[in-house]
Amino acid sequence: MVKFIMTLVGFLTIISAFGQGEINTTKTDKHKQISGTKFFLIPPAGFIPATNFQGFQQMNSGASILVMEIPGPFSESIKGMNEPGLKTQGIILRGKEEIMFNGNQGLFLTAEQFAYGTNYSKYILVFGDTLATYMVNGIFPKEVPELDNDIRESMLSVVYEPGLTVDPLSAVSFSIDTQNTKLKFGKSITGMLLYTVDGKVPTESGDRTSFIVGLSLANVQTVDKKLTAINRIKRLPYTDLKIDENKIIEIEIDGISGYEIVGEGLDKSTGTNELVYQVILFTDNGYYIIVGTTKNDFEQNLELFKKVARTFKRK
């Protein structure tokens, strides 16, 4: 699970620590619920609900505030949230402070990241307990420093209501059909849908087959789509990833063209050889991504991944 968390952090971006100590927040009539989640916060002026992720964004600056709920204890989730761990995701850590947030252990991180031709500043607020971890990311271009305080204050206004009932599938702009397959919906994290055999994330099943569907968080203009798809699968947390050139296939699903890639690699955390399946479907300013992984029954699971991927539809 740690490898997956750090991969998510790499998608997102951080500035300098400050003395917060203990922070307690209360929901007010200014708080806005983030669709499909149990999070509420007060968005900065000019920020609107995001379409590519769970949070708010400012279209003209490219700034955003993103939330996620991570299954697993706080102590486990924050492993790797240090200078060496963040560096592997292209993030430069500038500050780190331990805090108490609404009675929970927490960290407030400050950093910088270069992505898509822009230098970003980023704050990461992470807090939780022995059961779950909650993360809020604030990202803005360094050339727009006036957003600093607004984003930080918005992040620190966050309220999480664990007893709230929400429909996570309603917050994404796409769907897939897993009926009559072994895959069960598990979690929605940053607008990505996670499926496992038992519907738990992390899974408790001996069959650790997983399937993830999501939309790129940033607007990306792609020139060489095939190369982009190859580079994207190489960013997954595997070593010795071997890709069969004969299994890089141009594909079209729901009227969107892209590439299907099949490979094998060693899981960085366990060293287990796994089948890795990826589909990238390119839109005008980004892409949808589908990833299936399994450590056994490669041929059977590959057919499963292909079958489910082809049910992808935009809403």
Q: What percentage of residues falls in helices of 4 or more residues? A: 10-25%
Q: How many β-strand stretches?
A: 20
Computed CA radius of gyration, to the nearest angstrom: 19 Å
- Major β-sheet strand ordering: 1-7-8-9-10-6-5-4
The end-to-end span amounts to 30 Å
* Global geometry: globular
How many helical elements?
6
What is the arithmetic mean of pLDDT?
Answer: 89
- The CATH superfamily of the largest domain is Mog1/PsbP, alpha/beta/alpha sandwich
Which percent range describes the beta-strand content? 35-45%
Q: What is the H/E order?
A: HEEEEEEHHEEEEHEEEEEHEEEEHE
What would you call the structural class?
alpha+beta
The appropriate CATH architecture of the largest domain is 3-Layer(aba) Sandwich
The major beta sheet can be summarized as: 8 strands, mixed
CATH class of the largest domain: Alpha Beta
Q: Domains counted in the coordinates: how many?
A: 2
CATH topology of the largest domain: Protein Transport Mog1p, Chain A
Low-confidence stretches: 1-19
Task: Give a brief outline of the structure.
This protein is α+β, with helices and mostly antiparallel strands and 315 residues long. The chain has helices at 2-11, 74-77, 83-87, 148-155, 225-234, 298-309, and strands spanning 22-23, 32-33, 39-41, 48-49, 55-58, 63-71, 91-101, 104-115, 118-128, 132-141, 159-160, 174-175, 184-189, 192-196, 210-215, 238-253, 256-267, 273-282, 287-294, 313-314.
